[in-house]
Design a protein that fits this description.
With 623 residues, the chain is of the alpha+beta class. The protein contains 16 helices and 29 strands. The longest helix has 43 residues. The two termini are 42 Å apart. Bound molecules: adenosine monophosphate.
Length: 623
């Protein structure tokens, strides 16, 4: 398929890849369209499931989660760019009904049973399945191939998490032209929609509390055109899922108190409880109490309890306080007084929680919160705006938009005594390059190991380790004489590249910095080979899905045809038109095929097609 021409050009789509829901948008007919999925919804659950016959992505996966919880994967975005032994990963594992093990290099590996066989996936691969689904929905809706995308990430994502998200895009067959921070995307959506009302330069705070992550951005917006991020803060592990978890824990304790049974080992019961708690949480945003009722939850015992909004708020009060403290810190970091904030934009499904809104409003001394953007779609909308700008398809308002973002966390290297030495401080505008000189720390040192970290702690190992390499070929000299230069470069996506060179007697030398004789070292987790293998596998899964759908369609068509024929032979004129013998043949063919279909749920496509041809032949002769 070729790309459309004229005003309908779509060269890039915008994708909000969220922990709980994902959303895709594109510029079409002179405006942004949020693209509906196959079931008509404008957001799709970030959920992938495997069973004995097929792989399901989105609503289909979520709908069957209660009967296939061990093979239904959600929340996987919380694994991306993290190691298996990360304490937060270990904590999450306890409440997930699916299995995650430590793979090569301590990467988390999701283990499922697919078509009766054990299969292992990385978080990048599962994420790529969601991205591929969004690409497909966009292609169907727009009627053209989609190759490029702008993908959003939580502002507080570190380099590994950004790199892993980019890898997921590559596996899905998408060229990620830009990664944009979620709150910045939401501010762009708001800016475009309220352009006429924004006069001069205003100070904006975006409060983005979603399913898995929390972000705050402080920015200025000039005439709805120039979006300059001043600072970001957040927590990549705080959101609606955590509120659900505390509710689940509370119910588990309540069940234990009433029945003396501990249901924590019962994955199915935990899955049902989580589902019910999430539903109850949403209800509590509009009413002050609700109940959770589950029949035969564990050991044949029913569970029923009243849940009040007050209880919910009490359980999660430390999370809400943390959110407000983060807003305060971010304002302090950017030297902005809260009285100078003109607009507070709410983004993310969890901002519907009344307590979160009330605490935020109280913090800003009663200032009205801006709820004009759709909290579920604003991020996807903003991503689509940037996609339209970068691909040159948007209108003048879109083309005039300028985006200036920052890096969320400081980047630097480990120096003597595990000290973290910052090369690029947090909240530095990106893209950005910085270089720093370092000297040898002992006599005749000819090689130095450069260990790169990201974070705000003084001790390097308290920060997030990104990778390391050795720089050798340093001329032997007393300590502190020979020096090297380390170059850090962050691109517009917030992804870091590190290089180094030896400076000897004032003359700059370019040297190789690792065993593979590369001068420049890109930090990433999946190797090129890994990604290529995953791309091939993604193609195989796509092929299998297509084959499965063809088979399911053939099955449905045969079933529908049998139904039509059964009705037809009841009609009087048909009975009159055909001989008794022919009618018998027809009835036999219908009965045989119906029985065959019941006994052969897994019949291959060729057999289903053959049965259809045979049925049509007999019945055509008869009618
Ligand atoms: P997002 O990541 O922005 O899609 O937000 C998803 C999160 O918002 C999930 O944890 C949902 O349970 C939560 N959510 C959605 N609607 C509500 C609501 N009415 N009240 C409380 N939480 C909600």
């Amino acid at each position: 398929m070729a790309k459309e021409s004229g005003n309908g050009d779509v060269l890039a789509i915008g994708i909000d890849l969220g922990t709980t829901y994902s959303c895709v948008g594109a510029w079409k007919d002179d405006r942004i369209e949020i693209i509906p999925y196959d079931q008509g919804n404008r957001t799709t659950p970030s959920c992938v499931a495997f069973n004995d016959s097929q792989r399901l992505v989105g609503d289909g996966a979520k709908n069957q989660s209660l009967i296939n919880s061990a093979n239904t994967i959600f929340d996987f975005f919380r694994l991306i760019g993290r190691s298996f032994n990360d304490p937060q990963v270990q904590q999450d594992l306890k409440l997930w009904p699916f299995k995650v093990t430590g793979g090569l290099g301590d990467t988390p590996t999701i283990v499922v049973s697919y078509k009766g066989q054990k299969k292992e996936f990385s978080a990048e691969e599962i994420s790529s399945m969601i991205l591929a689904k969004m690409k497909e929905s966009a292609e169907t809706y727009l009627g053209s191939d989609v190759k490029n995308a702008v993908v959003t990430v939580p502002a507080y994502f570190n380099d590994s998490q950004r790199q892993a998200t980019k890898d997921a895009g590559t596996i899905a067959g998408l060229n990620i032209v830009r990664m944009i921070n979620e709150p910045t995307a939401a501010a762009m959506a708001n800016g475009l929609n309220n352009k006429s009302t924004i006069r001069g330069k205003i100070n904006v705070v975006v409060f983005d509390l979603g399913g898995g992550t929390f972000d705050v951005s402080v920015m200025t917006v000039e005439k709805g055109d120039i979006f300059e991020v001043k600072g970001v803060a957040g927590d990549t592990h705080l959101g609606g899922e955590d509120f659900d978890n505390l509710m689940v824990e509370h119910c588990v304790n309540e069940f234990k108190r009433k029945s003396k049974f501990d249901l924590t080992g019962n994955k199915k019961a935990l899955g049902r409880l989580r589902f019910a708690c999430e539903k109850a949480k949403r209800v509590l945003s509009s009413t002050t109490q609700t109940s959770i009722d589950l029949e035969c939850l564990h050991e044949g015992i029913d569970f029923s309890m009243r849940f009040t909004r007050t209880k919910f708020e009490e359980l999660n009060s430390s999370f809400f306080k943390k959110c407000i403290k983060t807003v305060e810190n971010c304002l302090n970091d950017t030297n902005m007084k809260k009285s100078c904030v003109d607009e507070i934009i709410l983004v993310g499904g969890s901002t519907r929680i009344p307590k979160a809104q009330q605490m935020l409003q109280d913090f800003f001394d009663g200032k009205q919160l801006c709820k004009t953007v759709n909290p579920d779609e604003a991020v996807g909308y903003g991503a689509a705006v940037l996609a339209a700008k970068l691909s040159g398809t948007g209108n003048k308002s879109v083309q005039n938009m300028v985006l200036l973002d920052v890096t969320p966390l400081s980047l630097g290297i480990e120096t003597k005594g595990t000290k973290f030495d910052v090369v690029i401080p947090r909240n530095t505008p990106i893209p950005r390059s910085n270089a720093k000189n370092y000297v040898t720390s002992y006599d005749n040192q000819t090689a130095i190991t450069i260990e790169v970290y990201q974070g705000e702690r003084s001790k390097s190992t308290d920060n997030h380790f990104l990778g390391k390499f050795i720089i050798d070929g340093i001329p032997a000299a007393p300590k502190g004489v020979s020096s090297i230069k380390v170059y850090f470069e962050i691109d517009a996506n917030g992804i870091l590249t590190v290089a180094a060179g030896v400076l000897a007697t004032g003359k700059k030398e370019k040297i190789t910095i690792d065993n593979e004789r590369r001068r420049c070292w890109r930090i990433g987790r999946l190797s090129k080979d890994d990604i290529e293998k995953m791309i091939r596998e993604a193609e195989e899964y796509k092929y299998e899905d297509t084959e499965f759908n063809k088979k399911a369609n053939a099955h449905n068509e045969l079933e529908d045809h049998l139904y039509e024929l059964r009705n037809k032979i009841e009609e009087k004129n048909v009975k009159k038109k055909v001989s008794a013998e022919m009618l018998k043949d027809m009835e036999n063919a219908i009965a045989d095929t119906t029985k065959w279909l019941e006994d052969n749920h897994d019949a291959p496509l060729s057999e289903l097609e053959l049965k259809m041809v045979q049925l049509k032949f007999v019945c055509k002769l008869a009618i």
